[in-house]
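Reminder to self: tokens first, then the designed residues, so the page reads top to bottom the way the pipeline ran.
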């Protein structure tokens, strides 16, 4: 998509100050562990505790007046819905969030706290996504997809613009992948402003939908198993625009086991004193797995969120002990 980078550049200027420029923090402990110069992009410190607020805010600012009055619908396992809920609240736009009945109650309660209506559907996440889009169409509500929308992707791509400004010359950026919106946006931004930076896509081994689709060259079904990285779980909808973008921008991939994810989450708690969710652990685990390729070089890990039950986080850390 040739017009993606101009949209990212526009969003990078237009979203301030509503969207925070998150810190890029050097990690002495991870640098020593991996032999790389490791920097952590602290999206867990973004408003709503996740990068998803970026894409939601960008989509919301581009709605026409009629859509703003009518309200919007979206679908989310948590973080995207939370981002849309807050962006809608700030813009005065009513929000309905469709979610899986199995979604984290911590995230759903936070969505409701921002005034959004939550509708739970008892089905796998991909089916929830498709049903939510159908219901929104029937009700005449504009739909804000979690990843399959160029303006949502452009909002996420502002992370890439910040990375290039905060540390020019990064050798690699590690990011977890679900539907591919964040990594597509980051990759498209860095492709334009820092083409020497390699984009590393990181997946839980138990949830590989976009990875398998990239290998096949088309969206394919893949068995999705339970993973602590609930933020990246779920299939990829047919016709997803992230597939061709991700195939173009991702230069290296990592598949990580649940034990590796939990160990990375524990490492963040021990060394950085940060609670991060499973999807953030996926990216950090990908770095640890592939560190040999970047010895002595500056790399960034995107810590994409912090919205996780404390009990779940503590169980993960205990399992990794």
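Designed residues (321 positions):
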């Amino acid at each position: 998509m040739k017009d993606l980078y101009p949209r990212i550049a526009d969003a990078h200027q237009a979203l301030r100050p509503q969207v925070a420029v998150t810190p890029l923090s050097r990690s002495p402990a991870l640098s020593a562990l991996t032999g790389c110069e490791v920097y952590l992009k602290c999206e867990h410190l973004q408003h709503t505790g996740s990068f998803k607020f970026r894409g939601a805010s960008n989509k919301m600012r581009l709605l026409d007046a009629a859509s703003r009055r009518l309200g919007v619908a979206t679908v989310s396992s948590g973080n995207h819905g939370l981002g849309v809920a807050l962006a809608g609240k700030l813009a005065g736009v009513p929000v309905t969030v469709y979610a899986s009945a199995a979604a984290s109650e911590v995230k759903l309660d936070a969505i409701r706290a921002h005034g959004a209506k939550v509708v739970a559907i008892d089905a796998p996440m991909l089916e929830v996504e498709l049903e939510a889009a159908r219901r929104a169409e029937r009700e005449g509500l504009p739909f804000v997809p979690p990843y399959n929308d160029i303006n949502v992707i452009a909002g996420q791509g502002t992370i890439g613009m910040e990375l290039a400004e905060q540390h020019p010359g990064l050798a690699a950026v590690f990011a977890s992948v679900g539907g591919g919106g964040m990594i597509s946006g980051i990759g498209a931004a860095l492709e334009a402003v820092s083409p020497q930076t390699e984009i590393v896509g990181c997946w839980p081994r138990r949830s590989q939908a976009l990875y398998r689709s990239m290998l096949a060259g088309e969206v394919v079904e893949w068995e999705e198993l339970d993973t602590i990285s609930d933020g990246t779980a779920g299939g990829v909808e047919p016709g997803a625009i992230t597939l061709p973008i991700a195939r173009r921008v991702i230069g290296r991939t990592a598949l990580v086991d649940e034990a590796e994810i939990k160990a990375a989450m524990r490492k963040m708690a021990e060394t950085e004193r940060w609670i991060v969710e499973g999807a953030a652990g996926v990216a950090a685990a990908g770095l640890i797995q592939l560190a040999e390729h970047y010895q002595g070089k500056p790399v960034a890990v995107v810590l994409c969120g912090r919205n996780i039950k404390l009990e779940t986080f503590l169980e993960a850390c205990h399992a990794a002990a």
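The chain has 14 helices and ten strands.
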